[in-house]
Design a protein that fits this description.
It contains 28 helices and 13 strands. A five-stranded mixed beta sheet has the order 5-6-10-11-12, with helices on both faces. It has a four-stranded antiparallel beta sheet with strand order 7-13-8-9, with no helix packed on it. The longest helix has 29 residues. The C terminus is likely disordered.
Length: 735
């Protein structure tokens, strides 16, 4: 149909769109237009010949990304920015490494080890130029939960005699406990590295997509609650056991408030002052970030000042303030982890591996998009796996990227991984040369650093009203992740949240809108219904798909088939009654009308027409395509031919599969069920992708009632085909 529009004098002529070609179906496309693909598998010799030296070089460069950017590193342009960024990040990494080791339930020096080795390795294997690898609060807390569960304080209780046999004192062998917990954390890190490395080599970088953003934000907010609660005892200077497992947060809060009367006032004052100073510094950095050349290093200022005050006033001896105590100088020699602990840590290591990678890749993609480069998810998995696996032999615990340090590294002018390398050198300098300086550092100062750094995570509570306005389902995912992680612990909470997120996907695919294709002012073709579904067809929604098909098109194949059978029985009964009166008087001949169409459909149509004939022969009426009736005589010529009303005004259903990505065996059977009743109506499909067609051929979909001639590349092809083939057909009336 052409539309003629009178254009304005100055308006350009309208663009015209005309296509003239034959109507294509899948059988024609497959046999005539598509080139046959080579199906014979390649031999080993062919595969080896394909592996050229250039391909080997490309594989090596992808495995070692530093070889792609270091030879062309612009020293004059990038070096100063990387130097300032590395020093700023390293100064920030020192106190965070010491503090997050407390979350991991290991001595603080192991946080410094974890801030050196992984950062050094990521420089060679990572693809992000701006993220800061090292200790992170959520991962450290997850490690601490596992460590405390496997090595609780009760395992290291020792009774000591006080002069007499009746007076005994129970104390904890902290040296043995800490050594055991370090072994557990190291083995857990080894297993996390192996899992990440294997997933990366198998190209499983897409696993992070199952941790949707509302799930991650709800989970990290719950982790912030756990971290905050775990630091209350250090801030108040009280001694309470550390809990793990379901309801551990409630048990920790109960233990803190039940012993709150024993609060060390000096510890509380030191911690409170540190929190106020850190908050003010962070606020100043945020307000004047455009004017400050580098952010004010609030954490290192607090660490140095509190260490000096603690040393000068002897807070540990005079006021019983808990301090870091021993920090050995130098690096420990490598050692093989105790792999006998592996069986109890598999589930926890999977959760830590996935969460660590998810946080790392999400932040890496944000910076890559901002600065115009790309990151490889699979290579990031390999890089994190190598960082964790190799570093675990040097007594580290699992790491990922830190949001706060990454923002500092990027905002202070960091351009490449050289900034991270310089940050690791700062940590190495402290570990080797001046680690002993931080031995008087109060633990409450580290608790203050951790608590203030949680401020950004607590701001994620603002997601709740935003999600309420935009997506109730995503709000439910956020709330389930938060509540489950707070009450059940981070490991079980993550599992529950992931299961709920998957159920929400199933719910949304089952509840996808299905409708007959319609547009404003569009004219519907008589007898043709176009059905459009917004989801794939598989076991979870195949029944819903058929129900929506019946509801939207008004075509119920089972109901129509029942009516058809009832009419046949009625015709048969009437025919038997007439035959009993055949010798008494001329009679009407009941007839079944057979519509002979190119689709091989039998439609019972109706006309108000009677034929009265004498004699003993039967009339055979043929209505040709031009509407004329040709009469032939058969055995009985005294029957009256009567045509029935049509069963259904719809003679064709067109299934538009434009958004369908896959169909499983259950979905294929459901579609075949709708096509099965071809005596009532016909069904054709359109817009199938090549992958979907291959799946359907594998499922042997094109057998029986379904043929490739029923599949068309576009809706328009299908409509033209059906309108042409449903032109006035040949009708044969037979008894």
């Amino acid at each position: 149909m052409e539309q003629h529009v009178t254009p304005c004098e100055d308006a350009p002529p309208p663009l015209m769109y005309r296509v003239e070609r034959p109507v294509f179906d899948e059988a024609y496309l497959h046999t005539q237009l598509l080139h046959p693909r080579e199906r014979s598998p390649k031999t080993i010799r062919q595969r080896l010949a394909h592996c050229s030296s250039e391909r080997a070089k490309a594989i090596a460069l992808s495995f070692l990304p530093i070889l792609t950017w270091l030879p062309s590193y612009p020293v004059k342009e990038y070096l100063f920015g990387d130097l300032v960024s590395g020093l700023s990040t390293g100064v920030m990494q020192l106190p965070q490494g010491l503090a997050y080791a407390m979350l991991a339930a290991v001595p603080p020096v192991y946080g410094l080890y974890s801030s050196f080795y992984p950062v050094l390795l990521y420089t060679f294997f990572g693809t992000s130029r701006h993220i800061s690898i090292g200790t992170f609060a959520v991962i450290s807390l997850m490690i601490g939960g596992v460590v405390v569960r496997e090595a609780p304080d009760s395992m290291f209780m020792i009774q000591a005699l006080n002069g007499t046999a009746t007076n005994t004192t129970v104390f904890i062998d902290t040296e043995a406990r800490d050594a055991r917990r370090v072994h557990i954390a190291v083995v857990l890190t080894t297993l996390v590295g192996v899992i990440q490395l294997v997933l990366g080599l198998l190209r499983f970088g897409f696993v992070a997509i199952y941790l949707t953003e509302p799930l991650v934000r709800g989970f990290t907010t719950a982790a912030a609650v756990h971290v905050f609660i775990s630091q209350l005892k250090y801030l108040l200077g009280i001694q309470t056991p550390r809990f793990s497992g379901p309801l551990s947060a409630l048990h920790s809060v109960t233990a803190v408030f039940s012993d709150i009367t024993s609060t060390n006032v000096t510890t509380l004052i030191v911690g409170g002052v540190c929190m106020v100073v850190l908050y003010c510094v962070k606020d100043l950095n945020e307000r004047f970030k455009k004017k400050l050349p580098v952010p004010i290093p609030g954490e290192i200022i607090v660490v140095m000042v509190s260490t000096g005050i603690s040393y000068g006033l002897s807070l540990s001896e005079n006021y019983q303030v808990d301090v870091v105590r021993t920090i050995p100088s130098g690096l420990l020699p490598p050692a093989i982890p105790d792999f006998s602990l592996l069986p109890n840590l598999v589930t926890d290591s999977i959760a830590i591996a996935v969460v660590g990678f998810s946080m790392g890749i999400s932040l890496a993609k944000i910076f890559a998009l901002k600065h115009g480069y790309s990151v490889d998810g699979n290579q990031e998995l390999i890089a994190l796996g190598l960082c964790n696996f190799v570093s675990s032999f040097f007594h580290t615990f699992a790491i990922t990227c830190s949001m706060s340090r990454s923002l500092v590294q990027e905002s202070t002018g960091g351009n490449t991984q050289i900034a991270g390398l310089l940050a690791s050198m700062v940590v190495l300098l402290v570990v080797v040369a001046i680690g002993f300086v931080f031995q008087p550092l109060p633990q409450t100062a580290l608790a203050a650093i951790i608590m203030v750094n949680l401020l950004g995570m607590f701001k994620q509570f603002r997601d709740i009203p935003a999600l309420w306005r935009t997506s109730k389902i995503e709000l439910a995912i956020w709330l389930v992740a938060f509540v489950a992680s707070v009450l059940l612990g981070l490991d079980l909470g993550l599992l529950v949240a992931l299961g709920f997120a998957i159920l929400s996907v199933i719910y949304r695919t089952q509840s996808e809108t299905c409708d007959s294709a319609s547009l404003f002012q569009a004219a519907e073709c008589t007898g043709i219904k176009i059905f459009h579904s917004n989801s794939s067809i598989y076991f979870a929604n195949s029944d819903l798909y058929l129900n929506a098909l019946k509801e939207k098109t008004g075509v119920d194949p089972v109901h129509l088939q029942a009516i058809r059978k009832a009419r046949k029985r009625k015709l048969k009964k009437e025919s038997a009654e007439r035959e009993s009166q055949n010798h008494k008087s001329p009679q009407k001949m009941s007839a079944v009308v057979k519509l002979v169409s190119p689709f091989n459909m039998d439609l019972e149509l109706g006309v108000t027409h009677e034929v009265v004939a004498g004699g003993g022969s039967q009339n055979h009426l043929e209505v040709q395509g031009n509407g004329q009736v040709a009469e032939t005589h058969t055995e009985s010529d005294s029957e009256e031919t009567r045509f029935l009303e049509p069963l259904c005004p719809v003679h064709t259903l067109i299934l538009d599969w434009t958004p369908v990505n896959f169909i499983d065996s259950v979905g294929a059977k459901a579609i075949k069920l709708s096509v099965r009743y071809r005596p009532t109506y016909q069904t054709v499909c359109c817009f199938l992708t090549g992958t979907l067609l291959a799946e359907l051929r594998t499922l042997q979909f094109f057998t029986g009632v379904v043929a490739p001639e029923m599949v068309f590349p576009t809706v328009h092809d299908a409509v033209l085909h059906c309108r042409r083939r449903t032109a006035p057909p040949t009708i044969t009336a037979i008894q």
